[in-house]
Amino acid sequence: MLKQFAYKQFGFISFKNDETILEQLSQLTDFIKVLFLKAGSKITIDFKQHTTETDTLYFINKSQIYKLTDSEKAEGILLYYNRDFYCVEIHDNEVSCDGILYNNVYEIPVIALSETESSTIQNIFDDIKYETNNDEVANEEMIRILLKQIIIKATRIWKSEHNINDTVNNQELNFLRKFSQLVELHFKNLHTVADYANLLFVTPKNLNKKVT
To answer: What is the pTM of this model?
Structure first.
């Protein structure tokens, strides 16, 4: 299901034990994605395999390579959207497309959900599915609000699990997030630590210390 709002695009795919999902996923390389997988599913992201022990959320950027390892045993929901749909109206902060779930030098953001958290997230997905299937007043804005709810809840869980709650840790996280954004933008023409240190107004030694 794909909703088109002028240049803004948003899609919703629900799947269960479905081999055809692999072909659908391969066609979505130009979109930013939120993937919800039920426990027992397997996925490979950037050549690293993950097996979900609990219901899990993955936040996948356009540049990342991903594939359901065993689609016949995978169950979940995929949201996909372009930057025009969500990002252009939100300033750079923790819950934007440039937030910590999409620009994270620590690791691929994997949000393992408790039973209560999973139930809450699935209820939001149900609301998104309804909005995607129907034409209502302020339909586009409602989908955007619901999407943002998922991102905010997942960001809170990730920060809590990584003890990113005090000012110092937040500053470090924001610095590393900015570094990740710059690499994403300039990796084709900037290749040295000194190049990125210059953009971040720090010394190469300081940058190397922060990212290693």
So the answer is: 0.77
